[in-house]
């Protein structure tokens, strides 16, 4: 093959690109055009999200400025030819974070013409770091209230266990949401013996939390809307309230269902485990709104007394009441459950002069 001369550098080459050797062509045709003024990088100082154009993004890793710079530069740099990859060199990030401006070193992989293979070049890009609150953090700091979750219990106060469970569900849900949505922070919280209220600036977050509460508490969910004016873009705004209503009955209560009495052994995730006080069999049911409304509370769990099992002679169980002068009583049972053992402490309740024995812990 004939040897060619590069008119720029005089080097002998096998091929010319637009009349120049490969090296001279790359020098005169850079992969990017260095901007004349610094590129603005806008970052929220609270949540670490960054803005490109009019949209805000959350970095995959909180505080990962390598991703923030890379995403911004890939959108804002003027590219010549084809860009394959852009990488910010970590060594140059520290000085930018300290001075809020300067040049950041990037490695660009691409090619300015399809005739060349991909190659890498390094450039110093002037940037300016601007910290500005994102819309979500502005709403949180200003305590903008766009959605509220109200948890209530029908005709009663919460138990300590219920309050702990509700708070645990909410905190775990917010923790999961916060990884991708920094508005998953309540702007106001009220917790009392009969009230649990969480207020949010994000309706999307509030709905996710409300649906999780409904799922794991087996509760009713009611949505109500209230006019909140007009947005800057002329859209109609509304505030949403999600009301979570727990049933009147609780774990440990004595209830009536379809003409029979039951002791609630367990109540969770829309499932209820019942102990029949007629034949001491176990029944599991799925809670629905109509079923909840058909269950009535006969005695609250606070009414349950304690007794000590003295002897078992089927079908009779002899117990000593620990709260009534240690009276000895004999109770007839259709069958003796495994949780009734001699010397073991159990619960009992008297309804219409009849004594019903009740397990203190869950029935196996």
Features:
single chain, 364 residues, alpha+beta, OB fold (Dihydrolipoamide Acetyltransferase, E2P), 6-stranded mixed beta sheet, 5-stranded mixed beta sheet, 20% helix
Structure description:
It is a single chain. The chain is of the alpha+beta class and 364 residues long. The chain has three domains: 15-132, no CATH class; 136-246; 254-358, OB fold (Dihydrolipoamide Acetyltransferase, E2P). 20% of the residues lie in helices and 41% in strands. Helix 5 crosses helix 6 (203-217). The longest helix is centred in the middle third of the chain and has 19 residues, at 160-178. The N and C termini lie far apart (89 Å). The model has no long low-confidence stretch (mean pLDDT 87).
Strand order of the largest sheet: 6-5-4-10-9-8
**What is the number of beta strands?**
25
Please give the radius of gyration in angstroms. 35 Å
Overall geometry: elongated
Task: State the major sheet.
Answer: 6 strands, mixed
The helix count comes to 7
Write the layout of secondary structure elements.
Layout: E1 4-5, E2 12-13, H1 22-28, E3 32-33, E4 39-43, E5 50-52, E6 55-57, H2 65-76, E7 78-79, E8 82-88, H3 93-99, E9 101-111, E10 119-131, H4 135-141, E11 147-153, H5 160-178, E12 188-191, E13 196-200, H6 203-217, E14 220-230, E15 236-246, E16 254-257, E17 260-268, E18 271-276, E19 282-286, H7 289-293, E20 296-299, E21 305-313, E22 316-321, E23 328-332, E24 345-351, E25 354-358
Parallel strand pairs: 4-10, 11-15
Antiparallel strand pairs: 1-2, 3-7, 4-5, 5-6, 8-9, 9-10, 11-13, 12-13, 14-15, 16-17, 16-20, 17-18, 18-19, 21-22, 21-24, 22-23, 24-25
């Amino acid at each position: 093959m004939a040897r060619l001369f590069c008119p720029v550098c005089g080097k002998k080459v096998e091929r010319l690109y637009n009349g120049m050797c490969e090296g001279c062509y790359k020098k005169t045709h850079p992969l990017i055009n260095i901007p004349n003024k610094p590129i603005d990088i806008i970052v929220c100082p609270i949540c670490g999200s960054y803005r490109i154009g009019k949209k805000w993004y959350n970095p995959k890793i909180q505080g990962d400025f390598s991703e923030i710079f890379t995403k911004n530069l890939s959108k804002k740099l003027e590219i010549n030819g084809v860009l394959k990859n852009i990488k910010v060199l970590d060594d140059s990030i520290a000085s930018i974070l300290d001075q809020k401006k300067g040049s950041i070193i990037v490695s660009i992989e691409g090619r300015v013409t399809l005739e060349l293979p991909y190659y890498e070049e390094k450039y110093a890009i002037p940037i300016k770091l601007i910290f500005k609150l994102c819309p979500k953090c502005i709403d949180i700091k200003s305590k903008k209230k766009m959605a509220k979750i109200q948890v209530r219990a029908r005709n009663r106060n919460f138990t300590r266990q219920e309050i702990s469970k509700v708070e645990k569900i909410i905190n775990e849900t917010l923790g999961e949401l916060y990884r991708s949505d920094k508005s998953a922070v309540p702007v106001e919280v009220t917790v009392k013996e009969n009230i649990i209220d969480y207020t949010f600036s994000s309706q999307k977050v509030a709905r996710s939390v409300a649906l999780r509460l409904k799922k794991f508490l087996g509760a009713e969910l009611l949505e109500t809307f209230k006019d909140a004016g007009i947005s800057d873009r002329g859209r109609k705004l509304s505030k949403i309230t999600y009301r979570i209503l727990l049933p009147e009955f609780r774990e440990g209560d004595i209830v009536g269902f379809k003409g029979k009495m039951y002791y609630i052994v367990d109540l969770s995730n829309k499932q209820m485990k019942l102990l029949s006080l007629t034949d001491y069999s176990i029944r599991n049911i799925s809670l629905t709104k109509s079923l909840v409304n058909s269950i009535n509370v006969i005695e609250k769990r606070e009414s349950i007394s304690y007794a000590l099992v003295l002897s078992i002679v089927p079908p009779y169980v002899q117990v000593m009441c620990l709260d009534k002068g240690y009276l000895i009583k004999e109770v007839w049972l259709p069958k003796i459950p495994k949780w009734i053992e001699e010397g073991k402490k159990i619960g009992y309740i008297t309804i219409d002069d009849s004594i019903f024995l009740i397990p203190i812990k869950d029935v196996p």
